[in-house]
Each structure stands twice: as structure tokens, then as C-alpha cells.
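Take a look at the protein record below and flag anything odd:
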Amino acid sequence: MIVIDNVLTAQELSFLRSQLRKADWAQGISAGSQARLAKHNLQVAEDSAVLPEMRMTVLRALNRSEQLLTAALPFKILPPNFNRYTGDTNRYGPHTDSTLRPLPDGGYLRTDVSATLFLSPPEDYEGGELSIQDSYGSHSAKLPAGSLVVYPSGSIHEVRPVTRGERLACYMFMQSLVKDAEQRRELYQMDMSLISLRRKHGDDDPDLIALTGLYNNLLRRWSEC
């Protein structure tokens, strides 16, 4: 589980929140058969007039994030969706995300990485934590508006009940260049260390050049696209 702060600018966040006030909402869509039983929230309807520009706003923000690039190594990103937790539609029980998701062009995307972009400030609601289970235990995320959390799509996760206020968020699925989650984790750790070392020693350090070559060669070996 990796947290990326300030993915959205203040202007982008304000725009998305204003558009959500105009959106048409639906219940029980965009989930597999098992997950649909656990899903009790509202989602912006696919035919809502505001959805295309909201999706483009999020995708432009994602394209700016170097940390997302190194963490997820995205090959394809499914068009983002937006959800709302409040009142009786206030939770999403434990589930895993479907392995295959249909793309607008008629193909399918393999879900390697899931991501939640928080749109409501945490003080606006009680509960609503995203809880994720992995081999290292259970982790919870309730982030500032505009921040993103990414995690393996195959992990069991849930959104705990919102007991006061309203939780707005954007969620999305990515097919990674590197299918294996452990390989992605190792590449991410290596790249973050390389970034730190470049700040200390500069880009022309011979050892850093060699290590950067090793990183890229591992990425070539493990990449499936």
C-alpha cells in the first residue's frame, strides 16, 4: 500500500467536487457478482453528463505523478469512476476486485493495481476508512482530499461504514507493465532509493549510472507488455 499526497491541485479538487454536486447517481454498478453483494454505495452513472470531463481531470493529474509511475508502472488505466458513501449507502464490505474489467474499446484490462483518490476532507465524515489486508497485515487509509492510495487489486479490502457526513472518492484500476506485485514492490523501492541518491550525489555519479542501468534491465526482464 503506497500513499501519494497532493495528486490533485486545489483547482482540480474544487472542480471535481462542484461537478459531483451535478452528477446523476446509481447504485449497484461496476462490481463483480461477489463484490456486488458487499457493495452499498452510490456511483456516478455512466451516462451522467459530467463524467467525461471529470475522468479527464483525474487522468491528467495521474499523468503528472512521477511517484505513481514508479509505484504502479501503469500500462493501461480503466476510466476512473466516482463514488459516494452516506446515509443508508455508506459501506463496501470485504471483497477483492474483479481480475478482468471491460474497456471502452471492447477489450479487457487485467486489474493489477487498484487506487482510491480521496475527494472529501477527513473531517467531513466519520468512519469510511479504506481497510486493506495483505501479507504484512491490515492497513487503513483515510487521507486528505486530493491524496491517492494504491494497492494490489487482489488484496481483500473494504470501506468501513460512514457514520456521519459524506465520503466522496474516485477509484480506478490499472494494468501494470509488471504483473507480479512483489517485483513491482522491489522496483519501487529501488527507484525511490535511486531518486534519493541522485539528490545527494548528482546524476553523473558512475555507480548511480550503473544502478540505474540495473533498474532498467530488471524492468525490461519483468515487463510483460
Summary: The chain has two domains: 2-176, 181-222. The mean pLDDT is 92. The helical segments are 10-20, 33-38, 51-64, 66-72, 181-201, 206-222.
